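User: Can you write out an input/output pair for a complex, sequences first and structure second?

Assistant: Here is one pair. Inputs:
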Amino acid sequence: MRKTLTAMTLALFATGAMAETDPTDWDAVLEAANGQTVYWNAWGGSTTTNEFIAWVGSRVQEDYGVTLEHVKLSDTADAVSRVLAERTAGQDEGGAIDMIWINGENFAAMKRNELLFGPFAEDLPNWQFVDVDGKSVQSDFTVPTEGYESPWAMAQVVFMYDTADLANPLPNMNALLDWSSANPGRFTYPQPPDFLGSTFLKQALYDLVDDPTPLLSSVDDANYTEVTAPLWGFMDALTPTLWREGRAYPQTGATQIQLIADGELDLAISFSPGAASAAIANFELPDTVRTFVLENGTIGNASFVAIPYNASASEGAMVVANFLLSPESQARALDPENLGYGTVLAMDSLSDAERAAFDAIDLGIATLTPAELGTALAEPHPSWMERIEQDWVNRYGVSE
Amino acid sequence: MKTEAGLHFDHVSIAKAGQVLVELNELIAPGEVLSVMGPSGSGKSTLLSSVIGTLDKAFCLTGQIRLDGRDITGLPPEQRHIGILFQDDLLFPHLSVGANLAFGLRRSHQKGADCVATINTALADVGLEGFADRDPATLSGGQKARVALMRMLLSQPSALLLDEPFSGLDTELRAQMRQLVYERAKAQKVPVLLVTHDIEDAEASGGRIVRIGQN
Amino acid sequence: MRQALKYLQINTAPLLRRGRVLYVLPTLTLLAMLGPVLAGLAGTLAPAFGYLPAVGATEFSLAPFQDLFDWRGFWPAVWLSVFVGIVSAVLSLSVVVMIVASLQGSAFFTFVHKMLSPLLAVPHAAAAFGIAFLIAPSGWASRLVSPWLTGWNRPPDLLIVQDPWGLSLIAGLVAKEIPFLLLMMIAAMGQVDFNRSITVARSLGYRREVAWLKVIFPRVYKQIRLPVYVVLAFSLSVVDVAMILGPNTPPTLSVQIVKWMGDPELTLRLRAAAAALVQFVLVLGVIGLWRIGEVMVAKAGLAWVQSGHRGRGFSIFRPFAFGFAVLSALAIFAGIAGLITWSFAGFWSFPEFWPDMFTLRNWMRHGTALADPIRETVLLASVATIVALILTIGCLEAEHRHGLRVSTRGVWLLYLPLLIPQTAFLPGLQTLMLNFGIHSGRVPVIAAHIVFVLPYVFLSLSDPFRAWDRRYGTVASALGASQDRVLWTVRMPMLLAPVLTAAAVGFSVSVGQYLPTLLIGGGRVQSLTTEAVALASGGDRRAIGVYGLAQTVAALVPFAIALLLPRLIWSNRKALRNED
């Protein structure tokens, strides 16, 4: 009887902030995770991603007894609003979501609203392999991650082009405008606020401004108009030359791949250097497609996973996040046969055998080498993205 | 006092919204046929409903209906032991001829093989030997009418209600069926209430005729 | 609610006295159907007026509406929604009238009638995918004539799918609404003695089309008024079809509401709630407008009927009707054929009419992932359908035994869940559920499905149930069978075919539900439809082909069962085989 009472009292105190196991005590995490079901909310629009997540599920089941359920979203923001709705209702534990594939705005919003569990990322055992110095894995769109999300893939803007119709890569945004003017209807970008569409706007802004420094800090009303003026001039000239004269836009990046395959587009933006090769392997793109980056570089960022503050299986989610950082998982993701996502690991932190596995991967005919990709430009502060999206919607999004 | 035999309409009066539709005060003795005649809308079907026990709540019945001395006025249909034949045969289309007959069989005193034997005898009785497994939909009109009659009789009703039972049949069949029904009713010594608008049906029964709805 | 109970004329005294379950069923049915709708609307109200503590909004105000009206896309989105709603309803109704007026009684009409159930069962999303692939510049229609006729070696840069006027959205809606209205029309005509009326009118010298319009239509329209309103409300507020075929600059109001509901900028929830209320008022307003239109058309029509015009010039009706009937069926069937082809396609470039090669690879890739959503879909649909059937049969039986009849005005209640836009009450319902600590998951999703399954099951079962000859029951009772025995051993077996058809209708309605599954399931309940629409965002036509097809099959199989099972069970019972 007394024992029960003590247990109950303990349980009473334990609920709240630290119901979950402390990530520094990894053995305890593993023990708690065993038998848990982790609901990973991740965008479900790509078959290759879905397959990769299914593979992760089978591996964590095998090694750690964690069941992974992929909740396929059409928009990551759905997951964010779900967590919000739960907090509105006072459901501070036992939430429906255990892990979210997240970055940028969504991360900023969740962190600002204290909807995240953590910090946990830098306590994960596999953090030791992460290339902290060489890759932007500790800030997300200039917002410091502070351990509230764990990186699992590197992405960088590339342009996919069909060499059958466009012989040479385009060096910069003005060249893109010239080409699009000469070949109207052959280029478009996903409709902002789609993530990739907004990225195109930021990429254009980066390439058109003389000095990108203001972009790295919070947007400032005083200089916003001035800084973005070249962008809107460019966009006003570009829009009439777009696919469907800019009166309709693809809703996602993946739709562009179908449009290239149909021969409607010759050029499209992508955030995944290996995606074109993967699509060729799956018959989704003709094998004449290649990729290029702009001469002054392109934006790069990391994809992260975060755990909501009220997750039901935070230990299981940490185990999955840790597995995603393992050399095995990273090598698989890099292979364009599977996913074609860049790795977040530092090669020199790996053993020879592990490094050999990475070296053996054939990156595919349409994938640029790390040297060709060059150093990625940092993402602008998320406040820029919000302002530019808003502006874009007002200028082009609501009427012809 | 001796137990009263037969179907007794003891000062029965049925009204709707305060207006009297039908009144009847008759005793039908066992084996007797009472014919009730009247034009459509005269309340014939209302009267029938009151005997079967399907009278709509909108109607108000005063008086008493007794069957062999037992007051059945408030009983549900399944407890009245009154058989009914409509103009249409109404054989259950999902059951075989034999199963239709078995449906009404009082099982308490018959079982298994007896049951089958009873059905076969009943069928043979009306010239339908070997029809037990047939689909009712494949029978002729006259055959269906006979099956319907036997189905009712096998349930051993204490009284019979006939609702224009012969008007769906052609002239020749009609005469045959009439004869069959009246004979059986007399043989089983049950009171019969016949509702019809056809004077021939009424006269052929050889019983009394009451006309309603003609005031 | 009290009003509602009054419509059903529920007398509570016997309920308390006997405590019989049958008496409670009508109330229970009403609760199952309207409870979530009303609760959801209530849950939308607070945030619409500025109250959503989670984002720090605790003061009631009109700010969300102000914010909504300040959105530059507001009026275009409203205009687009109204335009799409009214034009689709007018078009579908006109085509259906033309088809029935000029083709009724012909062999072609009988054929069309047979095609209706499968056409209806094809889920909206699958039909929309199919149609998108047919009419897109790179679609089958364009491949058919390229390059030999058009000279196109690449798809032309034409804005067809997702055009700003919503024309392709309208086309997709009309193709799906024609079968629905046609079925309703045919059911309604069963209650009108049209053959003799037409004969009389024709003997007076009227063309058959004109005779139909003048003599039959006014009577039939009364019967199908509510279904027409359903079509109107549906086209005005549909989400999944509009996401696939509708424009995005701006989208329709409903699509925008769903987008705001999912925006990381959490305060947009307030704007979404305000828009949901606007959407609700919009539907009410347009139905009101339609009602005024009805009165005006009736007036003009009366003058026309009395003019004695015998209707030369109506000869174009027949070819038009024929053309539209074929076109709308073709749009759906060819669309499905497109899904099939894509699901087996290897590389397939424009303007090739067929893929370079056919491969099982797509099915093998998605096959294993399909198993779970199929199981989920079947589970949701089965439970929702069974519950709806039990409630419906219980209500109809209560009506039969105790006269608890749904009055004419009560029929409105049945249609209410179909008339109130999903986007107006589902978001509020989600918030409410959470407030009461009800976890998302299968059970609430099933409850939400029942809201939509129940009316269809009720509507499709009530006519055959009521048309059943009560004298069978009387005969059975007289033979000593209790009421329950009559129900189970006589009535249900005889009504097997309509019960199965109603079940199939309910099942296919459940299979097609997108928004309730997504919002109430909190993303954890993944049906074929939510998976297919999620995949659509990726534009992978092979994956869409596989999922769209799986979705269609899931909706069609029950109809096949409803058609075949009675023939098997009643193979020896001529009167009960479902042979029309």
